Amino acid sequence: MIFIDACLKKPTPYTPVWMMRQAGRYLPQYMAVRKSVGGFLELCKDFRKASEVTIQPVEILGVDAAILFSDILVVPLEMGLDLEFVAGEGPKFKNPLKNLEDLKALSPEKAVKNLQYVYDTVALTRQNLSDDKALIGFCGSPWTVATYMIEGGTTKTYAICKKMAYSNPELLHEILRSVTEATKLYLENQIKNGVNAVQIFDSWASALEESAFFEFSWKYILEICDYLKAKFPQIPIIVFPKGISGYLDKISGNFDVFGVDWSTPIDLAAKKLGQKYTLQGNMEPTRLYDKNAIKQGVSQILEIMKNRPHIFNLGHGILPDIPVENAKYFINLVHEMSVGK
Ligand code: CP3
Question: What's the pLDDT at 327?
């Protein structure tokens, strides 16, 4: 698999490419399947349909890897926290965590068992996906997942969880430990059922100042990496802490690929990290609205990453109103322009 070769810094005939959020609303075929089951969470829980939409972008766009169709928030959902996806508003937890009693009512062990529908999606997808395409499993970082469990949904300020970080750090650490325990076993089961690599999404890393990032987020990401590498040294791990370009110097650990977000210049990441890790990224996602912008973005990034281990991706998720034709154009262009680079 060319994607796995790139993760492991082996030479590849062209640069492999996939897109974060590649299975989703910009694809009419996804909308049709989602409608047939009722809603987003219903789709995550229906392993046959979830597997179908996992494979859609591989067949429609020709990306080099499929990413498991699910969500980072199924972990707290199955720990026992009531989750709803409200159209146009995103995820909502009815009873966000306020204290230790709330946390004690949740069960990481139960979550790991209840997530069987995800393991079934993985197994079926690996069975149906062509042998040269990788299947990527994933989870949220404990910090990013905890922001939703504490705030109850998406937040602009992170006021409640950051207040907890400073006024009751023990409670925040208890929550993070609990999510970390569930996540280690959850990813272990994804691997046992057939994923070829895993990505840890730390979408809200940049909500924290430097010292708090290392204390409340990075530390738990590294714990997950160490756990998985001790058991599955051959499975590549991708980390994606978004918006931390100010302290790339201090980033190292037991992972293979560093996901570069669009706000971090990829030449800076290459200078700081490019010898040790494969870099993944990082075209600005809204370039996908315009073909000239795509061409310019792809050629700039390929030029910088020439002769370095690289997986092409967007610098964050694809937006729901991107024309499919432009997404196809992007994937083809990366393949064509990177031959022999
Ligand atoms: O294609 C893929 O990348 C695989 C599937 C995937 C989803 N969510 C499906 C989804 C992955 C990897 C995620 C990760 C995820 N989920 C993250 C981390 C990545 C990132 O984008 O930063 C986060 C923060 C979440 C939490 C989440 N899920 C939010 C905030 C939302 C609402 C925002 C939105 O885009 O609607 C979701 C919903 C969600 N997750 C959708 C999909 C396809 C949209 C649901 C729908 O209407 O069909």
Answer: 98
